[in-house]
Specification:
Length: 366
């Protein structure tokens, strides 16, 4: 049976590391799970991590190498959190940057080069002081991995001391890819910071707009009765003009007086009682009409009588409606009474029947 592409690629990575080992890093899959690797790397010389040995896990997806892995550190370093999936340009947090040609060796060399880089607020990244990192580098030598069953320093090949140590170290064949990964890492996190800042600005703008809306709604509720551009003086002047216009119309002719009074009566018929309505109109007539004109007073009295008659007609209609409702209720009440009487008779007959049955049973028993 043919193996899956992922398993074939994993076996190729195992052979590559076995054929060309390095004293700077070591990695191998677990016997129980080929998709979980444990790695060990040395800290780069000339950095805060020099002399340190750092152990971690590489969790490969089922679609490897077409999807990037998750990376977790188990040894404290002051640069990455332990037992958390770190965010790197070659990890599963950035699948858009991953290339299927990359493998385990590239990941190990990239991790060594990423240790001295700044955290930049990435997920799982730390920005501890240089003294703390150096202290953790010394303590990392004694780290023990229960899954591997030994100290992690024993997994690394011993460094070969040669005369070439004074020379600068040779560059890795993945140097260009690692530099590209670092640039992509910076660009990705700078983009995240810019989006976060934009989101915060949008939130602040939304809060300000909400407060402005609340304040404007409160003022609008108070000013519903008045026009938007009106002032107290304008309102008073408008009221005075309306009163003067009404007086002029009333005093102009008797017909205009009667029409105006009829309109007022129609508008206030529901709100004002008949007696109060008549009294108010009499007061207005005394204020407007000149004294000594008998004809006009007679007309006013007739109009007042008409005004009083109209509410009386309305009251008569209400009384007729109430009488109709009373008749209906009188029709319904006898039916209810008859039903109650029938129920009482049925209950009485039932009780008598029960008594007679009881007496017959007692007679039989005796």
């Amino acid at each position: 049976m043919s193996k899956s592409p992922s398993l074939r690629r994993i076996q190729a990575d195992v052979r590559e590391l076995a054929m060309d080992p390095s004293d700077r890093y070591h990695a191998a899959p677990l016997e129980s799970d080929m998709f979980e690797w444990h790695f060990t790397i040395r800290g780069a010389d000339g950095t805060d991590f020099e002399g340190g040995v750092y152990h971690g896990r590489i969790i490969l997806p089922a679609e490897y190498p077409f999807k990037p892995p998750h990376i977790m550190f188990l040894t404290p370093s002051g640069r990455f959190e332990t037992n958390t999936k770190v965010c790197l340009s070659f990890s599963a947090y950035h699948p858009e940057l991953w290339q299927p040609a990359w493998g385990i060796r590239l990941i190990l060399e990239a991790l060594i080069s990423f240790l001295p880089t700044p955290a930049d607020g990435a997920i799982g990244a730390l920005d501890w002081t240089s003294a703390e990192r150096k202290k953790l580098a010394k303590q990392s030598i004694n780290f023990y991995c229960p899954a591997c069953g030994c100290k992690v320093i024993d997994l690394l090949p011993k460094k070969k001391v040669t005369s070439d140590d004074a020379l600068p170290p040779l560059k890795s064949k993945f140097q260009k890819e690692i530099e590209q990964l670092q640039l992509l890492q910076n660009a990705a996190h700078n983009g995240q910071e810019s989006t976060d800042s934009k989101e915060e600005k949008n939130k602040d703008d939304d809060q300000q707009s909400n407060t402005e809306k609340k304040s404007s709604s409160g003022t609008n509720d108070k000013k519903q009765l008045a026009p938007p551009n009106a002032t107290p003086k304008d309102e008073e002047s408008q009221k005075k003009d309306e009163n003067n216009f009404n007086k002029s119309e009333i005093s102009s002719s008797p017909s205009s007086k009667s029409e105006f009074k009829k309109k007022q009566q129609q508008e206030r018929e529901v709100k004002v009682f008949p007696e109060a309505n008549g009294n108010q109109q009499e007061l207005r007539q005394n204020e407007v009409n000149p004294v000594g004109i008998n004809a006009e007073n007679v007309q006013n009295n007739e109009e007042n009588n008409d005004i009083i008659e109209q509410p009386n007609q309305h009251c008569q209609q209400q009384q007729s409606d109430s009488t109709k409702g009373g008749i209906v209720s009188w029709l319904i009440d006898p039916l209810l009474q008859c039903i109650i009487v029938l129920l009482a008779i049925i209950c009485y007959l039932f009780i008598r029947k029960v008594k007679s049955l009881v007496e017959e049973l007692q007679a039989l028993d005796s």
